[in-house]
Protein: Fructose-1,6-bisphosphatase class 1
Amino acid sequence: QHDKLALPVGTTLDRFIMRKQEDFPYATGELSQLLRDIALAAKIVNREINRSGLIDIAGAYGNRNVQGEDQQKLDVIANIRFIRALRNGGEVCTIISEEDEEVIQTGNVQGKYIVAIDPLDGSSNIDVNVSIGTIFSIYRRVSPTGTEGTMADCLQTGTNQVAAGYVIYGSSTMMVYTTGNGVNGFTYEPSLGEFFLSHPQIVTPQSGAVYSVNEGSSNSFSSGMAAFVTYCKEANYSARYIGSLVADFHRNLLKGGIYIYPPTSKSPNGKLRLMYECNPLAFIVEQAGGKSSNGRTRTMELRPEDMHARCPLFIGSKELVEKAEEFLAQEE
Ligand code: AHM
Ligand code: MG
Structure:
């Protein structure tokens, strides 16, 4: 509410970030700059995504891009764009990416920040014009500056996040992020090339009537998980599952609901990654008044064993996540 009054209609993301920086008297502006770097890379990736369906048509006119990149490779392109933006920005010493097996050292040894990123999640949806997203998470390094970031810098628990956000490339493109002071959403105006504040201080409904889970795996659900799905059906909830995490999460954040990626026989620890997917969305959902856990333990308190570790995800409206946890607790 405070933000709605304080910020005029037509507030751009850049201006918003600058205003927010004034709220932290000792801030040096590096985090603000880092968020702007991410937003810039997001605009570039957005442009590539919008054009991706035209690549073959453009090729027919002799306009094929030099690399001959096909659409599926957009996740690789997105990875390159974000890493380049973060490296050039200078605030980040080390990046971990879902797309890269190894840690990426930017060479900016004075950089205070660590970024974990899933550059393009849901990439199997690119070919079929379904919404996809970028998810990011920002930590302050724990090691002293002047050297490369360490594994301990990269494997912090989610509670240490200083900022997290996502970009959804959908019917419109949005960036939603938190720095621990609530959640704000910005919608991209392509002809102006700017993100504008469109969703100030997002508060997620405490409950909801939507459950989002891949029921194709229900044969391998645990008894508690199966009982929760039955409960949702008996309550006449709607099933909504795009299969694109950012899109499913974004809808439930605004409208209420629960997203679940439970353990299955194919993915005994769930499919989603703690550092790139679960923690950033958990920070956002908590800042919006919702909840996130692995079914038993708060997501942001899970200890990452390695940077690509997976964990089950139960995320969304508080009452629904608690209800699911109750069913799991009753399992023998
Ligand atoms: P990806 O990182 O390979 O793109 O996979 C992540 C995606 C999520 O966006 C989505 O929620 C989930 O995988 C869907 O998985 P499934 O098809 O097993 O339901
Ligand atoms: Mg992913």
